Protein: ZIP family metal transporter
Organism: Massilia niabensis
Amino acid sequence: MLSKMVERLVSLSVGIMLSTTLLHALPEAFESGADAHKLFATLLAGLLTFFLLEKAALLRHSHHHEGDGHHHAHGHDAREAGKSGWMILIGDGMHNFVDGILIAAAFLANPELGIVTALAIVAHEIPTEIGDFIVLLNAGFSRLRAYVFNLLCSLLSVAGGLLGYYTLDQASGLIPYVLVFASSGFIYIAVSDLMPQMQRRATVKESIPQVLLIGLGVAVVLFLTAGH
């Protein structure tokens, strides 16, 4: 039941993240008057940065656990999770801190963009946090300890949001570049991480809900920004 919910949320978050990025964040940045060449350079730098962070296992983690259908020897995933439990918390905390800064930048650029950016991040974070919780349990954390550490990591987004709001408010010229950097992260996560997960389920029966949920994600963003 839980895995089904995560799968549905992944599809929904793809629609929300891509539509937020391509229909709102990037147009907002490029319409700001900032130099287009520098914005594209920021987009390229962002994509490469997220790729390197993934390589360092600081941003995206494997959320596999025993019984997930992948063919490993019994206990393999638990051992791997045990090695990476604290690394996951460090990476998740950094990720949430940056998310807070990105949300602040989006709100400073445009309140409606701030809402859809926050929605895109929440849509992605729900399945991510569920996966992290499962990995921490496999790493030997008690349910209470895993929940508390996940909560503390999530609160770092508030710290990032406050820092971003007060810093970027004084340096508004940086906002378009932060929006483009955020967009590179959304595009990378959606295309490199989430969509390949969806492609593993290739039957028509499984594909139809995926397509419908992506469409729903796009529709939600369009509805929230209808007056923009």
